[in-house]
Amino acid sequence: MAVEAVSGNGAEAVPPAPAREVGVKAAEVAVSENASFREESNFLADLKENERKALVELRDKVEAAIVEGKLFDDGKGEEKKKKKKAEAALEEKEEEGKKGAGAEEKKEEEGKKGAGAEEKKEEDGEKEADAEEKEGKEEAKKEEAGEGEKTAEEEKQAAAVVDKDITLWGVPLLPSKGDEATDVVLLKFLRARDFKASAAFEMLRRTLRWRKEWKGFAGEVEGDDGAQLPGELEGSCYLDGADREGHPVCYNALGVFADDAVYKKALGSEEGKARFLRWRVGAMERHVAELDFKPGGAASLLQVTDLRNSPGPAKKELRVAVKQVLDLFQDNYPELVARNILINVPFWYYAFSTLFYPFMTQRTRSKFVIARPSKVTETLLKYITIEAIPVKYGGLKRDIDTEFSADDGEITELILKASSTETIEIEATEADATLTWDLTVLGWEVNYKEEFVPAEEGAYTIIIRKGKKMGSGEEAVRNSFRAGEPGKVVLTVDNTSYRKKKVLFRHKVKSASAKKC
User: Fold this and answer.
1) I need a labelling partner for 159 at 20 to 30 A (CA). Which of 99, 220, 225, 267 fits?
2) d(Cα 289, Cα 386) in Å, to the nearest integer?
3) Are 378 and 406 in contact (CB under 8 A)?
4) Are 422 and 7 in contact (CB under 8 A)?
């Protein structure tokens, strides 16, 4: 059995080959020129000197904060304490000034009354001093007792929050535990803050406080069934496969909100909006649980957001909800998304995006990739193999595939020149064989047909699929044919455009004799 690609100038054997890089114009799709992207290394040996120093500093800060029970401290308590002491000292100074001025005036007045008055004044002054001294001692004792009670209470509270087993995303945060995943998590906060240890430490603190206060991780809100969205939205956010670097791929489909009934049910009330936000955070938590925080592991997601049929900027509730999600993720899930790919992007998005971009860090913005409808498959192929791209996005992956597994049906690539026709031939060397194939064209916009040509000379050609103009939004083709006699299936792709196309296909043949064995 053989597969051949035949052009108008003759036949040329095409050996099976993995899909290679697909070029994309930078003006149309803002993606890297590389076929696959690589994040910064999480191995300590690969860090720069300043990065290692920042990591050591952050380790020390986290270690001290956990051991002292101050990891959740926002610093406001200490500031209030210092402010209160300063105010008390100022009041004491002002009071002493007033007493001194009063005593001076009284002294001058009594000096005019003679020696007798002077003696009386001295006596009264001594009594007053004794009284003030006594009062001051009593006040000092009260303050000392109060300060002691307060210190004891603060120490009690601090001891209550000391938790050396505290974790984030299942990773121990105490560096002295020696878990190598700890550094990977700390590096995420450092990278989000340009390796400024103090800023990264404060970001970590805020994230931990937010997680402690957030209601919704496990349906903690009374009457909330785990923050589950209406059934119509179940397919709006899900994981499916991995990219070329092993990152789990998260797909988001906003087109579900085009239905007014679904939209109102999900975002039509304050309760609904809060529920949506809790659900989206819960989904993120489930996806993060699939990550590997060991050095060299897939410690972030590849996120694909499909804007096909999504409501425009006029839907204020959706716009606000999306911004809330972006803000929460940027603040509390740093560096957990390796790349954000937006596909089927409509024209209105470019104006709409200006509302969000000012609120994103430069690093977050740099991870966005934009693909218009005609470039969806071509763009995704730069990051995900064609076998792992869902069929609805022009790939070959089907939810339930009984024909092809991950280990069979090698992908063959064919370049289709502008204004040319190519044919792919799949041979059936014996009778009663079943031939099955998958085929997709990047961007389509070609004419396509399928035929079976018997090996016997003069036999009639059988049309399997009539010639059809395939639009840019077509899914990958899958078909099969049971050959009653030796022959070949011929797949014809006619490119009438002035741009070259790329064809990707795979096939398999099952013979009747193999089934009997």
Assistant:
1) 220
2) 26
3) no
4) yes
Report the number of distinct structural domains present in the chain: 5
Compute the distance between CA of residue 384 and CA of residue 397 in angstroms, rounded to an integer: 11
In sequence order, what are the residues at sequence separation of 6 or more whose Cβ sits closer than 8 angstroms to the Cβ of residue 15? 412
Each residue's pLDDT tens digit, 313-345: 778 898 889 889 989 999 999 999 999 999 998
Query: What is the Cα 436 distance to its own chain's centre?
Result: 38
Residues 11 and 99 in one domain: no
Rounded to whole angstroms, the Cα distance separating 143 from 37 reads: 63
Strands, E, within 368-455: which ranges?
368-371, 412-416, 420-428, 433-441, 446-454
Same domain, yes or no: 300 and 354: yes
pTM as predicted: 0.75
Question: In angstroms, rounded to a whole number, what is the distance separating the alpha carbons of residues 444 and 495?
Answer: 9
- Tokens 């009663």 belong to 432
In terms of domains, do 273 and 335 share one? yes
Look up the CATH number of the domain holding residue 453.
2.60.120.680
- Please indicate, yes or no, whether residues 229 and 327 belong to a single structural domain of this protein: yes
How far is Cα 61 from Cα 484, in angstroms, rounded to an integer? Answer: 75
**71-85, 126-140, 186-200, 353-367: range with highest mean pLDDT:** 186-200
Residue 304: which domain range? 214-380
Token pair 């003030």 is found at 132
- Is 427 within the bounds of a domain? yes
The two structure tokens encoding residue 291: 């990550």
Q: What is the CATH number for 243? A: 3.40.525.10
**Are both 418 and 462 inside the same structural domain?**
yes
Q: Kindly report which listed range (59-68, 81-90, 102-111, 404-413) carries the lowest average pLDDT score.
A: 102-111
Q: CA-to-CA distance for 202 and 400, rounded, in angstroms?
A: 46
Do 152 and 283 sit in the same domain of this protein? Answer: no
Q: Does residue 390 form part of some domain?
A: no
Could you tell me if residue 282 is inside a domain? Answer: yes
Residue 376 lies in a domain: yes
Checking if the pLDDT of 299 tops 70, the result is yes
Reduce the DSSP state of residue 446 to 3 states and report it: strand
- Domain's final residue, options 173, 193, 209: 209
Q: How many separate helices (H) and strands (E) can be counted in the chain?
A: 12, 17
As a whole number of angstroms, the distance between CA 512 and CA 514 comes to 5
**Per-residue model confidence (pLDDT) at position 145:** 56
> If residue 22 lies in a helix (H) or strand (E), which one and from where to where?
none
496 beta partners: none
* Residue 393 in tokens: 């996005």
Residue type present at position 76 = K
Q: Are residues 57 and 187 in the same domain?
A: yes
Task: Tell me how far apart the alpha carbons of residues 52 and 85 are, in angstroms, rounded to a whole number.
Answer: 39
If asked whether residues 58 and 94 sit together in one domain, one would say no
249-291 confidence digits (pLDDT tens):
999 998 989 888 888 888 989 988 898 999 899 999 999 999 9
Q: Residues 73, 76, 79, 84: is their CA dihedral positive or negative?
A: negative
